[in-house]
## 1
Amino acid sequence: MTEPDPSKTTSKSIAFELGLIVAAGLVVTGVVVWWVTADRDRSLEPSGPTPARSNAAKTEHQALVESLVGDRACRECHPGECALHSRSGHSKTLRIGAAHNPVAKLSGAKFNDPEQKGVVWAYSVQGDKLTVERIENGKSDTFPIDFAFGSGHSGVTFVSVHMPTGRLGESVDLEHRVSYYANRKNFGITPGQEKGEKAEGLTPAGRVLPGDEVKSCFGCHTTINSTRGQEIVDSATMIPGIGCERCHGPGSEHIRLARAGKISIDQGDDRPRTTAAEEMLLCGQCHRHPDVISSKEIVAENAKIVRFQPVGLMQSKCYVKSDGNLRCSTCHDPHARASTNTLEYEQTCLSCHAGGDDKSKACSIEPKPINGCVRCHMPKRDAMHGLMYTDHWIRVRREAGDAAKAAYAAPSSPRSAAPIEPAKSIKKATVDPAIRSFFARMK
Ligand code: HEC
Ligand code: HEC
Ligand code: HEC
Ligand code: HEC
Ligand code: HEC
Ligand code: HEC
Ligand code: HEC
């Protein structure tokens, strides 16, 4: 830590002296006892960069922050995208405090831990916060839930930050042991924490996130982590969820130009667009790009990469051989929830695979199918806990029988600890500096 924050030290030591507002005795690797207090400082300070670098980063981040206008400012001129986006997983993927639906409705719920005998997890809302009690033999430890990750479409994982360990000045971030699985409307063990997992930092209450990992969680689930810099997580100034400007960059200049009549609505279909490769980098920031995966992992049998859609898609001949005509937005509206209408996607397959030209071929089985393409060539696979993900590595699958099923066995939770940057401008909405902006091109 380069600049110790005095306010933080104070709040921590006050909490320490007042004793424990909520006492939590919990053995971490045999020795450390956590004392969870209600008035923790919820901002995480950087531990890495040198002062010079962090000052530079601050100015750049400051400029970014100042030109952000927020999703609501786009509504006036782009009501369609805004309406779709407000219902999407992107906009709802992180909740602060967790006293909102769907999380708040977990209040009163109890869950018997399937692996820790006699342990019950009890959820209740206290103040503006969902809290969970871990009850074992009449002894109870309480954990306030600071953040809920996941829109509730599939899984919701709780994270508590800055929990004092009981050693003065030491605190940890905790990924809770128990997650909520919306797909089966029940709680379950968080992926990667089940019996037999060898992840570092596993405790009876959850996984202590090593080093900066918690910052990377936020990096992929917020628009910005705080106004003070991406390396600081601060719930007071964070913009949770993936807003318009995370993908398109800050909007103030665009809106200024639009109001000045300098953006023509009538640009026709030939206005320059982001290329497929650029889109892979944009979406791949969070959905993972082959650049951040070891090439050894990129094999068809590795079920772990099923969740990494750009990685899979970019292995497909459809992507490689279609001259940049296939990208995520060919099949998905990036503003909306993924459609569950398979026939819609299959219309897209057929737009290239109707046969008849030499570029793309029709399906080679007889009689020639007119649908079912997704089921046979892009099936859903169990990535964990019955969470089914679509395998975006479009290919011919000859696997059959139990051996093939075993090859598709559940992986552990794929989560990169790499720091994730938000869009500094639309230009930098992607990880590749060469990428041109949506807005810049319209000037
Ligand atoms: C005052 C009106 C106005 C506001 C507010 C506005 N835009 Fe636009 N925007 C336009 C116009 C006009 C165009 C060009 C016509 C079109 O593509 O719809 C445009 C086009 C775009 C495009 C397409 C660019 C391209 O090359 O295809 C994106 C992306 C975009 N706006 C994003 C945003 C975002 C994000 C916000 C909020 C931060 C926003 N706009 C706010 C007027 C506005
Ligand atoms: C590299 C970016 C990235 C990082 C880092 C990351 N996530 Fe995610 N997360 C995603 C994406 C993308 C999804 C969308 C679902 C998918 O395709 O895996 C997602 C989905 C989720 C979901 C929804 C449930 C599900 O499994 O679909 C939860 C909960 C979640 N993440 C929690 C976390 C937590 C907690 C951390 C930190 C320990 C974390 N994520 C780190 C990108 C990331
Ligand atoms: C996950 C990234 C992402 C987010 C978040 C996002 N967009 Fe987009 N947006 C895209 C991509 C990619 C395209 C290009 C899609 C295409 O070419 O079909 C696009 C296209 C657009 C366009 C041009 C549409 C057209 O038909 O040319 C507008 C306008 C737009 N977005 C506005 C918004 C607004 C407003 C928001 C927030 C409510 C938003 N976007 C959020 C990725 C995103
Ligand atoms: C800043 C990180 C980030 C970026 C960039 C990003 N995503 Fe996502 N995406 C996520 C997370 C996190 C989720 C999980 C949302 C949830 O909790 O349900 C997600 C979910 C999705 C879903 C499932 C949505 C649903 O509700 O059914 C689709 C489809 C998707 N993303 C497509 C894209 C595409 C296409 C792009 C690029 C244009 C993109 N994403 C860029 C982080 C990101
Ligand atoms: C933008 C055009 C395009 C779209 C859309 C598209 N493909 Fe393809 N696909 C191609 C091209 C080009 C090839 C390579 C053909 C060749 O080998 O010359 C290909 C190859 C294939 C192959 C053979 C793969 C192999 O490894 O031999 C399959 C199977 C396939 N596509 C299925 C699909 C399915 C299913 C969909 C829809 C989910 C789809 N494609 C969407 C263009 C496309
Ligand atoms: C050829 C069509 C196609 C392309 C291209 C495509 N997807 Fe998908 N995607 C699908 C289908 C089909 C589904 C399954 C939808 C359903 O029925 O739930 C899906 C589902 C998803 C989901 C929801 C979770 C899941 O795995 O079921 C996410 C997230 C997603 N896609 C992200 C992406 C991203 C990111 C890209 C670009 C790298 C992309 N997709 C490109 C067809 C496509
Ligand atoms: C019942 C499963 C099934 C369905 C449904 C199906 N396919 Fe196939 N497809 C296969 C198999 C198996 C092969 C490989 C056949 C062989 O070469 O032995 C194949 C091959 C292909 C190829 C490679 C052709 C070549 O000459 O290399 C393409 C392209 C393709 N399918 C596209 C599609 C599209 C598009 C659809 C939907 C209209 C579709 N498939 C529906 C099972 C299926």
## 2
Amino acid sequence: MKTLLITAPGKLEWTEMDLPELKRGEVCVRVAYVGLCGTDIDIFKNEAHFKVDYPRIAGHEWSGTVERVGSDVTSFKPGDKVIGDCMISCGKCLSCLAGYYFACKELKSIGTSAPYVDGAYKEYMITPERHLFKIPEGVSLLEACTVEPSVVSVYAVDVVKIEPGDIVLVSGTGAIGVVAAQYAKLKGAGIVILTGRNDRKLQIIKETGIDFTINVKKDNLDKKLSEIVKDRQVNVSIEASGNLEALEDMLRVTGKFGQISIPGSYHTPLEKLDLGNMASRDLSIRATGSSGGGATFYKVLWLMQLKKINTLKLITEIYDFDDIEEAINLHLRPNDSIKTVIKIDKNA
Ligand SMILES: [Zn+2]
Ligand SMILES: [Zn+2]
């Protein structure tokens, strides 16, 4: 099968790989679409927040069609439309049994940090049945490849408590930030404000139903916020940009008894943390990173089926698998992309 290898920082190579035999409980899926993630670009540049060994097959936001099933597979049959998880767990440890398999001690990532299994920039994925999720009616293979980043958003919002009418501040113009903002609104937020640094992206994002956007490169965040919230305050902040300045802003502007959830990941540690100042506001902080497991995948698929979460508008470009280098190059320079998707299967 046609496979894209990252052989060294900045180096891509096409190769033909053999498809391994299906083991018990495994499913072979023909990959349809893969969302190009910031992590894929970090792996390409060797700038990830984890150590990268090369060669590497990246790609962890994927959808596809079941091709064949191994023995003992009961939930899937050839032709089923599915999405795959971004992790493979042991299925037996305490965390797995409790449903929090992203805390499994034998967890392997798909194409990201070690220990890992090969990612989805190839024609087929072989995955244990328990890490596949059926795509419901009304959700396309294209939309479904954005479920994985949406899972990160939904989990990050679910760990904080949003009361009806709360004011929620979100930073980050990628899919994780925007879906977090959409979902906060869905959970009853009165006003959702999203910050970013690119007017074109903020314009598209505003059209997906976000109340206010602020370009923090051009406008003073504190001033703009006080114009919007007036005598109220920011109750919940979600930091999804991976930018430490945005995190520092949130630590400063989140109000009394405020909650901050952090799905973002950072290349460097935060230098100063003023705990006294935080204590004076009784702030709670949750660093969730890329957490969220099986139940959250089903929840996002259901919300997409209900048209309560809309990611199709966030897909700003689709590249054929053959043109993936062009897609990567786009992300090596400043760009207006919110979500880039790679079409692996020409017939999808
Ligand atoms: Zn990702
Ligand atoms: Zn486990």
## 3
Amino acid sequence: MICELCFHRCDLSEGQTGFCRARACRDGMIVPLNYGKITSIALDPVEKKPLRRFHPGSKILSVGSFGCNLRCPFPDIRLIPDVQNALPR
Ligand code: SF4
């Protein structure tokens, strides 16, 4: 099955996980593995976000899950996709 969610267009066989490690082929469907699973949560300065001109000096809640369709060199991002291996299937 072809996942059409992003430009990678992964061609996944039954049980296979996509490049992002967040979507997989299960029972003939492409399903999100990270739905409802939080891997990071933090209170950040709003200046870290594209909203930096919105209430300067205030905090913003950042919530994220595992999986990414890019391969950036930043260590914290590289570690997050491995979290899924520790989760129950
Ligand atoms: S990287 Fe993930 S979202 Fe993108 S096509 Fe592959 S499985 Fe789908």
